[in-house]
């Protein structure tokens, strides 16, 4: 306890210089400690002044300072232990909004009470579809407006999933049927979550070793137009193996080395977003939506890559051609020098990069060879990389961050939980037959499957593409559209590339927006038109190639010397 008080006391010092060194047992704050540890306590009232623990001798003071430095992170911020019970009153008063907080608390309480009352009413069993549709709508609004409501979308998604399955258990013919449906849904959803967790961990390990420098350091050109195309296609192929979010983070970080802050660098970042989304659409492991379709059997590996490669290239090439004509590109000097120094690759970084990349590419091969689900191949790759990193860093205590346990603490766990909540929510609607009814309605009013798939891409620019694709999978089964049919390949393409039309339409766009502080309307004004042109051109390319592949054999069969007549 005395040690805790000594540590805490070292993080606080009198804010008013009039009192400094004039109170019993008070000594000035050590000047060599990070300033951010102390600045938050300045200019506050007197009751926040701490009496420092009296140092018994010089050795004890040094040991306390040493321990405090261990509790201080590399970013210069105090460990929460230092300030767990000391809060800046000015910060609190500046950020505290009692009316807003009261309204939020009331909304949560009202929702909880309404839900509790509703599940006890008999009308829920008789009107299950209405109750579930309302719950899904309210939950989805909470996800869309998470920034305004300050509710994390992962928490909203999990709450929505549980609530929907509670209603389903009430409205099902029997509890056993609901439990059977839930078990089936959980098994399918878990495959996707395990796959994502394994992939994110492998990518995080490679990134911790600076393995992607092997790719980014080979970009040597500084000519504006050439650099625009090179960055676009490097991101395109990188995203076909990694997920589009990781590819965007890697490439935007590279842009900071290639160009100073400017409109031109923003345009390069926008190209990264378009290329990352396009590159993820044509491989089963490039985007979470194509992974979902692949795991559930709507698409397979080789037909998808052959069918969607050209449309994905077109969806990138058209925006690149249009953006190459802008003044931001043509107005730059002939060359621009490096503006940031490269970070050093970790020891054995090349080995980790090769193994990590190899395990990701091996997943489809593993599925083809064994017939086991893809997540088993991903877990196999993670296990191999885990053993290798443990072996090459054995005894290196200063490199613990390069090992898998530390990587697990840095991956986007809340993103995986968001997918879990969304997919379980959609599976409840599918179990209740609501999605089938919606599919019948769309078939009756929109007879063209191409138009349905294309509209999914447009809507995905506003609404997250994961629930859209999940709902589509629930609406149409393989009996309606068989594996690798035109519809499923168009869904994979449209859901993957449609998010490029708005900066908030994909995880890649949101990451770029945060890293480069890009304004929503700047992207809409400068990039959205080009992105839409590429999206439409890709659909046209797919339909042209697909129809040509169908009509060409028929036409050739009618040629006399080819049909044997």
Descriptive account of the structure:
By secondary structure, the chain is mainly alpha-helical. The protein has two domains: 96-171, no CATH class; 190-329 and 345-547, no CATH class. Helices cover 68% and strands 0% of the residues. It has 27 helices and no strands. Helix 13 (244-258) packs antiparallel against helix 14. The longest helix has 38 residues, at 520-557. The protein is globular.
Summarize this, please?
Helices cover 68% and strands 0% of the residues. The chain has 565 residues and is mainly alpha-helical.
Largest sheet: none
| Helical coverage, percent range | 55-70%
Overall 3D form: globular
Instruction: Write the H/E string, N to C.
Output: HHHHHHHHHHHHHHHHHHHHHHHHHHH
Protein name: Citrate transporter-like domain-containing protein
Pfam families: CitMHS
Keywords: Antiport, Ion transport, Membrane, Sodium, Sodium transport, Transmembrane, Transmembrane helix, Transport
Membrane topology: Multi-pass membrane protein
